[in-house]
Design brief:
8-stranded parallel β-sheet; TIM Barrel; 372 residues; alpha/beta; globular; binds pyridoxal-5'-phosphate; Lyase, Ornithine Decarboxylase, Chain A, domain 1; 11 helices; 9-stranded mixed β-sheet
């Protein structure tokens, strides 16, 4: 039975731990940056999927939140959060129906748009209602996922929105996720500058044509501190920076000490050349990094045991090869920094929150497992 005040090393495993002081520091770092650089902060909550953490971010100065899914927006709205950007080009009838239900509850929802066809779908369904929807144009700044190309294509879409009675253009945004494939900090800087310029220059073009653009938003954890300084940018949307993880450490964006999320795991076997842990792919995920990242070698970082490389995962086993002799023996408990915090969070129902190894709270992961 889990109790507050317990030592984390007495807990059952695998468990998902948050170091509360590190989380608070990471949240504070994002909001201080936003304040100092006079940009709004709209963190992406897909990393933690928690109403409690989203509220901490709002209390620390965020103007609203970003989500990837309409289901995440529904969960966050049920927790009392009212200013939400759905950074996804929604156009299916089912999804627009859910957007309308959120509007009917007074949620200040904004939805990403990136094509005339999508605008038509939104306009058509909203015409049956009394609601107007705020839309933000998504720009492709190099990730080559969704989004229109910067410049003229953005202007064309903006001009189309102006003529639609049920849509209101609120902003232009981009996400430079390809920064995760960068090999050096210099490359990240180049991508971040392009990211900021793609939005700022597109907004300028719209304004020169008489279409005001209120929000000009950028952001990924690797790029936001640089992209946020580009003239004309007035909002940042970091997500992963709440926790950081092995990928951010590999990129040189965060230190191991800053990583707030760890998986508590037990040694279930020690063999001549390997140590086996009770955290496999269902816990740590097989993620080695998004968008071509090659900076990490194993499937997680075993804290205080640099001699272990987590070389293979099966569903319930993590197999660590030993590069040197190890002190680990059966039933020892370790903390593992996951490679990709966001996907690991999605595997658990709860965070166990601790301060210096003593359990202080338990938080539900409210929006986990929501694929729609
Ligand atoms: C549209 C959008 N904005 C912001 C983010 C946050 O990026 P990161 O987790 O790198 O901070 C993401 C991440 O996928 C995203 O897709």
């Amino acid at each position: 039975m889990l109790e507050l005040g317990q030592l984390i090393y007495e807990l059952d495993s695998p468990s998902l731990l948050i170091d509360e002081l590190k989380l608070n520091k990471n949240i504070e770092e994002m909001s201080s940056y936003a304040m100092e650089n006079k940009v709004n902060l709209r963190p992406h909550i897909k990393t933690h999927k928690s109403i409690d953490i989203a509220k901490k971010q709002l209390q620390s100065g965020a103007v609203g939140i970003t989500v990837a899914k309409i289901s995440e927006a529904e969960v966050m709205a049920s927790g009392g959060i009212t200013d939400i950007l759905v950074a996804y080009p929604i156009s299916a009838n089912q999804k627009i129906g859910r957007v309308i239900r959120l509007l009917s509850k007074g949620i200040h929802l904004k939805v990403a748009v990136d094509s005339i066809e999508q605008l038509k779908c939104l306009q058509k369904q909203l015409e049956h209602t009394s609601y107007t929807l705020e839309v933000w144009i998504k720009v492709n700044s190099g990730l080559n996922r969704c989004g229109v190309e910067p410049g003229q294509d953005v202007l064309q879409l903006a001009q189309a929105i102006v003529f639609l009675s049920k849509l209101k253009l609120g902003g232009i945004f981009t996400h430079a996720g390809h920064s995760y494939g960068a090999a050096t900090l210099g490359e990240i800087e180049k991508i971040a500058i392009q990211e900021g310029k793609a939005v700022a220059e597109s907004a300028q073009l719209c304004e020169m044509s008489g279409i005001p653009i209120q929000v000009r938003s950028v952001g990924s954890t690797p790029t936001y501190k640089i992209a946020g300084t580009i003239e004309g940018i007035n909002e940042i949307r970091p997500g992963n920076a709440a926790f950081f993880d092995g990928i951010q450490v590999g990129l040189g964006i965060a230190s191991v000490e800053a990583c707030a999320l760890t998986v508590l795991s037990t040694v279930v076997g020690v063999y001549e050349d390997r140590v086996v842990f009770d955290a496999g792919s269902k816990t740590l995920c097989l993620d080695k990094g998004a968008h071509g990242n090659e900076s990490i070698k194993g499937y997680g970082t075993v804290l205080n045991h640099p001699e272990i490389v987590l070389q293979r995962l099966s569903e319930e086993h993590g197999i660590g090869v030993t590069t040197n002799t190890t002190s680990l023996t059966r039933n020892d408990i370790v903390q593992i920094i996951p490679n990709h915090a966001c996907t690991v969070v999605n595997q658990f129902n709860q965070f166990i929150v601790h301060r210096e190894g003593i359990v202080t709270d338990i938080w539900d992961i409210h929006a986990r497992g929501m694929n729609q």
